[in-house]
């Protein structure tokens, strides 16, 4: 366990678990937490072996969003300080969205503003049914910024995104699942087990494939079909080259021996030379 001032990082082979750790402030993200998150992402990237990153909160909150006092109120009168303070946050938000490993938000409680944003930036999300999400920015007079409107528009249907942006109402974890903001909402006592179930699936996969699958998904959302096909074909060659043709030499060889059914399970990477 690596304990920074406001974030703990647990590295366990292919799984990194990031704990937001300001429970007395509902894990509101202050400038120190933004610095710590940049450092945590550096550490995970440098590790090189991490396939899945789980982000969760200590206590009863995932995150109550940006620290409204330390990030906005206190630095506001000094434009340079305000800009630099928030740049650190915006940096790690952008990094998280493009992170090479699979990112999973494990939303254990309140997720307001920046908390909902982080949920939306992660590739996957699991929550307790009773967690509370909200875009509360309108309640203090601004619109969701720093990527939060983007997260709403890319994770919620239009009417729901606009409803929560314009009213500041909260939605439960169960509603978040219904609208597609999270993959699954479960009773609070099943949150760890459900997250572990997903993580176990991810860590069995080829890490290069996971990374390129994310790139192909993200890039092709803005492409027309011919461009997307040309792009994914080039990426497929890149994948083959980077992984020593693992899908042909290992995965499909095992299929040839009928060692597994790819429709129902994954190939065994135990024999892959790393
Ligand atoms: N920024 C700064 N401090 C915060 C934040 C925040 N975002 N959220 C909670 N805190 C502080 C509270 O002020 C309180 O501090 P205090 O003990 O010094 O008084 C402490 O955390 C505990 O919070 P309570 O309000 O006492 O906890 P409660 O369980 O009653 O309510 C709730 C939790 C609903 C999350 C409430 O704290 C709240 O509304 N927080 C603000 C949520 C929000 O609007 N976040 C900003 C989103 S917009 C953005 O991220 C850009």
Structural account:
This protein is α/β, with parallel strands linked by helices and 274 residues long. It has two domains: 2-203, 2-enoyl-CoA Hydratase, Chain A, domain 1 (Alpha-Beta Complex); 207-271. Helix content is 48%, strand content 17%. The protein has eleven helices and eleven strands. The chain has helices at residues 31-47, 68-73, 79-97, 114-121, 148-155, 158-167, 173-179, 191-203, 207-220, 225-242, 246-256, and strands at 2-3, 7-12, 15-20, 52-57, 61-63, 102-107, 110-112, 124-128, 132-134, 170-172, 184-186. The strands form two sheets. A seven-stranded mixed β-sheet has the order 1-2-3-4-6-8-11, with helices on both faces. The chain has a four-stranded mixed β-sheet with strand order 5-7-9-10. Helix 1 (31-47) links the parallel strand 3 and strand 4. Helix 1 runs parallel beside helix 3 and helix 4 (114-121) crosses helix 5 (148-155). The radius of gyration is 20 Å and the shape is globular. The mean pLDDT is 97. Bound molecules: acetyl coenzyme *A. Residues 25-26, 28, 64-69, 110, 112-114, 136-137 line the site of acetyl coenzyme *A.
Distance N terminus to C terminus?
Answer: 26 Å
How much of the sequence lies in strands comes to 15-25%
Secondary-structure class: alpha/beta
Name the helicity range.
40-55%
What would the CATH topology of the largest domain be? 2-enoyl-CoA Hydratase, Chain A, domain 1
Instruction: Assign an overall shape.
Output: globular
Q: Return the domain count.
A: 2
> Main beta sheet, described?
7 strands, mixed
Are any ligands bound, and if so which? acetyl coenzyme *A
Please mark out the parts with pLDDT under 50 across 5 or more consecutive residues, or reply none: none
**Which superfamily, in CATH terms, is the homologous superfamily of the largest domain?**
2-enoyl-CoA Hydratase, Chain A, domain 1
Helix/strand order:
EEEHEEHHEEHEEHHEHEHHHH
Mean pLDDT: 97
CATH class of the largest domain: Alpha Beta
| The CATH architecture of the largest domain | Alpha-Beta Complex
Number of helical stretches of at least 4 residues: 11
Q: Determine Rg (CA atoms, Å).
A: 20 Å
Strand order of the largest sheet: 1-2-3-4-6-8-11
Beta strand count: 11
């Amino acid at each position: 366990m690596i304990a920074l001032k406001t974030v703990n990082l647990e590295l366990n082979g292919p799984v990194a678990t990031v704990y937001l750790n300001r429970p007395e402030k509902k894990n509101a993200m202050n400038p120190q937490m933004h610095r710590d998150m940049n450092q945590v992402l550096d550490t995970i990237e440098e590790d090189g072996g991490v396939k899945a990153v789980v982000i969760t909160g200590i206590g009863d909150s995932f995150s109550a969003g940006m620290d409204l006092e330390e990030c906005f109120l206190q630095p506001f009168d000094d434009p340079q300080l305000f800009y630099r303070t928030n740049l650190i946050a915006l940096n790690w938000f952008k990094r998280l969205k493009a992170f090479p490993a699979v990112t999973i938000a494990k939303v254990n409680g309140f997720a307001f503003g920046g908390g909902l944003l982080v949920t939306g930036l992660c590739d996957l999300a699991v929550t307790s049914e009773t967690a509370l999400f909200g875009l509360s920015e309108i309640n203090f007079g601004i619109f969701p910024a720093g990527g939060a409107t983007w997260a709403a528009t890319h994770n919620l249907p239009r009417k729901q995104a606009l409803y929560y942006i314009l009213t500041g109402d909260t939605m439960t974890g169960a509603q978040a699942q219904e609208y597609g903001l999270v993959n699954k909402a479960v009773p609070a006592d099943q949150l760890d087990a459900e997250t572990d179930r997903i993580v176990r699936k991810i860590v069995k996969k080829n890490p290069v494939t996971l990374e390129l699958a994310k790139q192909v998904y993200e890039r092709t959302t803005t492409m027309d079909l011919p461009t997307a096909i040309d792009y994914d074909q080039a990426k497929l060659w890149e994948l083959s080259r980077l992984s020593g043709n693992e899908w042909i030499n290992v995965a499909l060889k095992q299929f040839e021996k009928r060692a597994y059914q790819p429709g129902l399970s994954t190939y065994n990477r135990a024999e892959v030379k790393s």
